[in-house]
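Appendix B, record 7
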Amino acid sequence: MLPYTTLLQIDKASPQPVYQQIAGQIVQHIRSGVLKPGALLPGTRELASQLSLHRKTIVAAYNELLSQGWLEVTPKKGFNITRNLPELKARSLRPDQSAAYGNRMAVPFYGQKAAMTTKANEPPIRLVVDDGHPDPRLTPLPLLMREYASRIKHAQRPTIIPGSLTAGTQRLRTTLAGYLQRSRGIQAGAEHLIVTHGAQMSIYLAAKTLLRPGDYAIIGDPIYPVATQVLENTGARIIRIAVDDHGMDITAIEKACKRYPVKLLYLIPHHHHPTTVTLSPERRLRLLDLCTTYNFAILEDDYDYDYHYNILPHLPLASYRHQGRVIYIGSFSKSLASSVRLGFMVGPADFITQAAQYRRLVDLRNDNLLEDALATLITNGDIHRYLKKANKTYSERLDNLDLLLRTYLADKIIYRRPTGGMAAWVRFKPGYDLSQIAQRAAKKGLYISNGKDYNNAGIPFNGLRIGFASLLPEEMNAAIGILSQSI
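Structure tokens (predicted):
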């Protein structure tokens, strides 16, 4: 008889019930070939005696294995391993303690394989300078959770048709339509809106719906790198257009349209990522003329429209006459908090219907309770009051960052104060290597970007975005102090 006292190791300190430990280890020994098909197991009393356990524990373990199909009962004999299992070669009497997953997958898979790096022995990070996120400490999350909890409390048996929530709840889409008309001048109904898990999902759905391999797509250079990856993933041919102090070069866009059948142009008109520049009104009008003349779609990513300081924002391109060629993207993940994964996309009804079909393949719907809770905060004015307060606070934090940069880094950086958004674009002058500065800062407990995410025609910028919205003044003071010491 096999040494079951050795094969079955019981850990009574484990949160896993003992009967499940026994069942799991028996399955493991069947898989490894130690227990062969048809093998008879000890009776429940006998095994309980060997392991010093109560017989009911062994009965529960055997019943678990019976229900899973690993055991069968032979009349007048007892429990044996199911006979129709394939016979496996025994490898060891000791339990396999190795991990099921290693670093490499045996089966080929597709995509870009990132180089694996280790972060062992790295010093702890105390401060993180992001590339522009809101401060969750300011957001009305308690109000949002109050509304959410209220809906959980009064939840009833669902009567919603399956698939009808893929584009978002009717209430939030209707509320958003009114909100966008009042705040941005965008004329759209609920049928023109899809609610997403943020701007990134919207970009993906738009690219999936509009592009096929070999199509031409225009982006700025530099531009938000993850959006570029999404467009490249469709197999589209990417045309990079330089971005200057007034936004994308419209003359260069027109030349590209004359040469190639452009299908899509991705644009960040307010606070371009990463440089924070704003597309001028004159260029906006010219771009709308071009999309009509050459019949391409504009994907307008207006992720931080809500944050402008001292000046009023330009109206989105989507608010002008464009014959349905402008797809508009916004995000409450940027307005409220990164953890609130709610964004939206606006477009013609047939486009939205198709985008919803693609979205349903990977994500059936958002959290409908959260969506309706947000709709309530929009309707009763909580979001408006929060944004008014946040604009004032973030403006003061920008003033603080501006003073710090001019006081401690003025002779080492190229920098222009942004008019809005939640980040400043800072480039280091020749002789100052940002990648080395970032390494030294990390040793002092500060995380900053090493600048490698941003490049111009394939040449990395020696610069980074310094997000000022998410840090308190004293936190930003400490961060810039460490940055200054790391140069």
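Remarks on this record: The chain has three domains: 4-81, 127-133+386-485, 161-380. The two ends are 71 Å apart (CA to CA).
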